[in-house]
């Protein structure tokens, strides 16, 4: 167990600590997709993000922003759900987790 998130997106893998994952998720969720969709100038065709503590840069089209946001929010939900279950004292046998 490495306590890291491996995000596979657009044929690449990026490794995040839990805190960096949450910060990157906030960055993606902060993208103004409405503005990207409505603006006609080239400057708004892509969103460029540099995740924390990586040498990776994401250059995302509107469709890619939607897909990445869905992926990160789903993973974030599972992280929150795991924390809530742990807080309630729930535990699962190793066979169920694997």
Key attributes of the depicted protein:
98 residues; alpha+beta; two-stranded antiparallel ribbon; two-stranded antiparallel sheet; 18% strand
Secondary-structure map with pairings?
Elements: E1 4-9, E2 12-17, H1 18-29, H2 33-38, E3 47-49, E4 58-60, H3 62-87, H4 94-97
Antiparallel strand pairs: 1-2, 3-4
Helix pairs in contact: 1-3
Average pLDDT, to the nearest integer? 85
Question: Largest sheet at a glance?
Answer: 2 strands, antiparallel
- Please give the radius of gyration in angstroms: 16 Å
Assign the structural class, choosing from mainly alpha, mainly beta, alpha/beta, alpha+beta, or little secondary structure.
alpha+beta
Query: Helical percent range?
Result: 40-55%
Distance between the termini: 12 Å
Shape: elongated
Q: Please count the beta strands (DSSP E, at least 2 residues each).
A: 4
Low-pLDDT runs of 5+ residues are none
Polypeptide structure, described:
The chain has 98 residues and is of the alpha+beta class. It has 4 helices and 4 strands; from the N terminus they run E-E-H-H-E-E-H-H. The strands form 2 sheets. The chain has a two-stranded antiparallel ribbon. A two-stranded antiparallel ribbon has the order 3-4. Strand 1 (4-9) and strand 2 form a beta hairpin. Helix 1 packs across helix 3 (62-87). The termini are close together.
Could you give a quick summary of the protein structure above?
With 98 residues, the protein is α+β, with helices and mostly antiparallel strands. Helices cover 49% and strands 18% of the residues.
């Amino acid at each position: 167990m490495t306590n890291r998130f491996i995000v596979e997106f657009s044929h690449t893998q990026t490794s995040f600590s839990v805190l960096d994952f949450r910060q990157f998720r906030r960055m993606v969720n902060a993208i103004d997709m409405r503005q990207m969709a409505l603006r006609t100038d080239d400057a708004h065709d892509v969103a460029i993000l540099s995740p924390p503590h990586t040498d990776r840069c994401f250059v995302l089209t509107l469709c890619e922003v939607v897909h990445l946001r869905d992926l990160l929010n789903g993973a974030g939900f599972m992280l929150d759900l795991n924390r809530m279950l742990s807080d309630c004292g729930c535990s699962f046998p190793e066979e169920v987790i694997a």
